[in-house]
Specification:
By secondary structure, the protein is an all-alpha fold. It folds into two domains: 36-221, Up-down Bundle (Growth Hormone, Chain: A), CATH 1.20.1250; 243-431, Up-down Bundle (Growth Hormone, Chain: A), CATH 1.20.1250.20. It has helices at 4-12, 21-37, 40-71, 74-101, 104-127, 133-147, 150-162, 167-217, 237-240, 245-248, 251-267, 274-281, 286-310, 316-336, 340-368, 374-385, 388-401, 404-428. It is globular, with a radius of gyration of 24 Å.
Length: 431
């Protein structure tokens, strides 16, 4: 029998075990998050991204409802979404080139000032009962033009504010707000339209963009110089309007563009078919269809937050590539087991997979392109983001020609084949 003294001695000599590896990672991740949000410029740019996201999804649903009430034509409603994407195709590269040449804080401030003024004018027209389908198209174009500045201007400033060592976490948390607004947007947009009408939506958008303008004027972030090395001459505006040949010759940059095409043609457009699945396959009520649509945004929000917390040292391309790979596999899985429960699970995981892609997309561009080309590289990428117009058209045709399960299988299979080929190119590419 041990003596009481021996027990006391054993207890007094006890020392707690050192924290485990996972515990240290959690502590480091939490510390990284706290550090980011103590940076005033990062916080301002994060809030700007949240405001733009809220405005975007408020307008997205409200403009569609108003367009249908005015025209009664589903095809004209679909045209609003296509018109919104056209600035990516025609203006994305130009905006990126200007971001390499002009002061980015002024560009962002002028963007929000112009957007706020434009939506205030449209609110006045709607209040005077003078708004129609043409007003909707103008609003969609203005919103699309504003969105073209997000990647080459706002996100570049955001990474400059956070520092390249915190880039993945910074973009992950920024991306989480995009998915959060995407999750609540359909519900908030419908409620706001019902309460305030289209003139109230326009006025609310004008107020949001005015607040973003104010936050932009408070930025003090130090921008990286356009020139790559000290003493290098500043490129002319004509030179900036030409595609960056150095990047276009890079096989790995080509693969990054290819993965973007896969996402926008075979992945992202499937979200537009969630209402079709909800009504035709599962016979859901409109409220439950909205809830089903929100699951993708919820999954994306959770995924983006986890990326911000955990993905500090993960290779960027691994997240970028396998996000799309998993997306395609999930489409194939849903096509094989097309039930409501499986749809909820797959949409949650699809949102998380898409978050891996979108949280690292600009980070790859930022690290691959020299400072003097980052705006043009992001602008050139915007052109390929515009291929979603082809994707929406392709998705509509597939769901018109085939039943839902076969359409999902074709989209997932086509996307997976191209993704695997691109992965082989990446492995073989040296630069």
């Amino acid at each position: 029998m041990r003596s009481g003294r021996h027990v006391l001695n054993s207890a007094s000599s006890y020392s707690p075990a050192p924290p485990s590896h996972s515990t240290r990672i959690v502590a480091q991740s939490s510390s990284r998050a706290r550090e980011l949000f103590t940076l005033p410029d990062y916080l301002r740019l994060w809030l700007i991204g949240a405001g733009v996201g809220i405005g975007r999804w408020l307008e997205f649903l409200a403009l569609g409802i108003f367009a249908y009430q005015v025209t009664g034509s589903p095809s004209l409603v679909a045209a609003v979404a296509i018109v919104r994407m056209l600035p990516y195709v025609f203006c994305g590269f130009i905006v990126g080139a200007l971001a390499d040449y002009l002061d980015k804080k002024r560009m962002l401030a002028l963007t929000f000032l112009g957007g706020s003024a434009a939506f205030a004018v449209m609110a006045g027209l709607a209040a005077a009962d003078m708004a129609g389908y043409g007003t909707v198209l103008v609003a969609a174009i203005v919103a699309g033009l504003m969105w073209t500045t997000d990647m080459p201007v706002r996100r570049r400033l955001l990474v400059d504010a956070a520092g390249i060592e915190r880039m993945t976490a910074a973009l992950g948390f920024d991306n989480s707000t995009h998915y959060a607004t995407r999750a609540i947007g359909p519900i908030a947009g419908g409620a706001a339209y019902q309460l305030f009408g289209i003139d109230g939506i326009f006025l609310l958008s004008a107020g949001i963009y005015a607040a973003c303008f104010y936050l932009t004027t408070r930025l003090n972030v130090r921008e990286a110089a356009v020139s790559g090395t000290e003493g290098e001459t500043r490129p002319s505006l004509l030179e900036l309007l030409l595609p960056p040949k150095e990047l276009l010759r890079s096989r790995r940059f080509q693969v990054v563009l290819g993965v973007t095409i896969v996402y926008n043609i075979w992945c992202f457009p499937i979200i537009s078919m969630v209402p079709v699945l909800g009504e035709e396959q599962f016979r859901l009520s409109p409220a439950l269809i909205g809830a089903l649509s929100a699951t993708e945004g919820i999954g994306g929000t959770i995924g983006a937050i986890l990326i911000g917390l955990w993905a500090g040292n993960t290779p960027l391309f691994r997240l970028y590539y396998f996000g799309i790979f998993a997306f395609s596999i999930l489409l194939l899985t849903l096509s094989a087991w097309l039930t409501l429960g499986m749809a909820v699970v797959c949409l949650l995981l699809i949102g998380a997979s898409a978050a891996c892609f979108s949280a690292t997309q600009y980070a790859l561009i930022y690290t691959m392109a020299p400072p003097k080309m980052r705006g043009r590289a992001a602008g050139f990428l915007s052109i390929f983001i515009g291929t979603s117009t082809i994707g929406f058209y392709n998705t509509g045709l597939l769901f018109s020609w085939f039943d839902a399960a076969d359409a999902l299988m074709l989209m997932g299979g086509q996307g997976l084949i191209v993704t695997v080929i691109l992965g082989m190119f990446w492995v073989r590419a040296k630069s």
